[in-house]
Each structure stands twice: as C-alpha cells, then as structure tokens.
DNA sequence: CAGGATCCGGACGGATACTG
DNA sequence: CAGTATCCGTCCGGATCCTG
C-alpha cells in the first residue's frame, strides 16, 4: 500500500518562524540534511535491508557512521530495527510509514540536484579560476 | 516572473548511482544539507537582503558562518553578491534564478518536517526514556 | 557596515580491536 | 554478522580583533 504523502505546500516560512519553533525545525533539518541519512533512506526505500548490505550499497559509508545514523533514524521513528536470533545473527532495517513518507521530498531534492548539477559544477569551476589571481 | 521549476520525478535513485556520479551528487547534497544554507535560501526567497539584515533574520547564525555559507552559495552560482561603494558600504545578496529554483524543493522538505514534527519529537522522547534503564 | 585573519576548544568521524 | 568501545587526528565553528 502506497503511503499517501501529498504534502500541502503551506506557508512554511522556515527561516522566519518563532525562535522556539525555528530551533525545533532545525533539529529535524539536522537529521534530514545529513548526507548519510539521505542515502540510507534512499536505499531503504526499495525495501528492508541488512546491515552489511546497506553499507555495501553506499560507497564511502563507514561502519561507524552507518550505525550512528541508523540509531538516529531509529530514535526518530523513521526506521525500525528487527533482529533475528539466528546464527549468524541477522538484522533488518526498514522504513516506517513516516520514514518512507520522507522519500518523496528527498526525491524532489535529488531531482533538483541532478538538474542543476552541471550548472553548479561550472559555476564552481569559474569561481575557483577567478579566485586564483 | 516565476521560475518554472516543476521538477519531473525521474528515476533518480540517489543511493545507487555510479560511484562517480554519487560522489558528485554528494557534493551538492553537502551544500543543500547544510543547516544554514536552507535558512539563508529561505530568507532570500522574499528578495535581496543585506549582510546584517540576513544575520539578524536567522537566530543563532554567527558572523563567520554567514560569510562562509554565502561564499559557498556564491561559488555555486546560487547567490549573487552586489557591493555598493557607499559609506557605510552596503552589500546585497540575492538568489540567482537557479538559487530560487531551490526554494520549492526546500519548501517541500520544510513542509514534511512540519507535518512530522510532533511525531518525531514523540518518538525521540520515547526512545530516550526507553534508553534510560 | 561588511568582512578578513587568527586562535582555539570541542565535536565529528575514521581506524582498530574486541564481543555475542 | 552485527554490533560496541576506544583512541586519536582533523576540521568545524565560535570568539575576538582588526581593516576599508
């Protein structure tokens, strides 16, 4: 069953909210913004995965960072952890409903990154060349 | 004139691309993911702003982080810097077309954060309580 | 006002070694 | 296999001081 996640684009002015609210949203952005969070949610969007499979699927992701990020996602209720008492042990990670609802916004962002990639790379190159006087 | 930015949700599988491409996208995510980037783009989405106005509009943003982030955005071609040779000097920062095209994806994300805020806070609380055995 | 330069503590994250 | 624990270098980012 698909998760209904058609987000209304309400007037969320994420920069100029009340201070308290701004801080709260900031805490959430800190998780979302995390490079590995994005990758992991992307990987899990296709279904449950085991720890090592997850790590192998994301180049550059270290053992430590994977566990840390997974704990964070679990804490936020975006990912569930299921351990099987087999030998060798097996642990599956899976997106919760809320976790998978995050996938669509991230896809939007990824799509943007894709479409702007060459522009940004060009801008960076020009900027750097200009900087070497 | 509104920037046309209806992004097609193509099959961007941001987790399992080629290694090279993954690295490249990662570099872009690093900028987007940055807490302050999000805030600054949000603030600038309403129009050009001066340095100090920008800083005051975002609670907790230090002098140094503002300049650093602005340089980054300028380097990526997402923000323009315009200096007026007046006394005292005045510098306006403004989103480029590409920069403002980032605003909509970010709004989507902010909207998601908003809608999941209480859920996440609850999940965190429960997780933390459960952790104190 | 806008910012560069410098110092410095603390957090982040990699490598390694050890458990169940 | 799936972690936890520890060590330790690096870099981030705040505070401060100084320029045009």
TrEMBL record, chains A, B:
SUPFAM superfamilies cross-referenced by the UniProt entry: Winged helix' DNA-binding domain
InterPro entries, sorted: HTH_HxlR, WH-like_DNA-bd_sf, WH_DNA-bd_sf
Species name: Pseudochelatococcus contaminans
Organism domain of life: Bacteria
Pfam families xrefs: HxlR (PF01638)
Keyword line: DNA-binding, Transcription, Transcription regulation
Residue ranges annotated for the HTH hxlR-type domain, each copy included: 22-121
Protein name: DNA-binding HxlR family transcriptional regulator
MF GO annotations: DNA binding
């Amino acid at each position: 069953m698909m998760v209904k996640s058609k987000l209304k684009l309400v007037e969320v002015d994420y920069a100029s909210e009340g201070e308290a609210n701004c801080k709260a949203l900031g805490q959430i952005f800190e998780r979302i913004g995390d490079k590995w969070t994005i990758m992991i949610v992307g990987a899990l969007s296709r279904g449950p995965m085991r720890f090592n499979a997850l790590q192998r699927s994301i180049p550059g992701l270290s053992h430590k960072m994977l566990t840390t990020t997974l704990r964070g996602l679990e804490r936020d209720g975006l990912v569930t952890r299921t351990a099987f008492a087999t030998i060798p042990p097996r642990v599956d990670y899976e997106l919760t409903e809320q976790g998978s609802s995050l996938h669509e916004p991230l896809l939007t962002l990824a799509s943007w990154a894709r479409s702007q990639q060459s522009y940004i790379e060009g801008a960076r190159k020009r900027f750097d060349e200009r900087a070497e006087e």
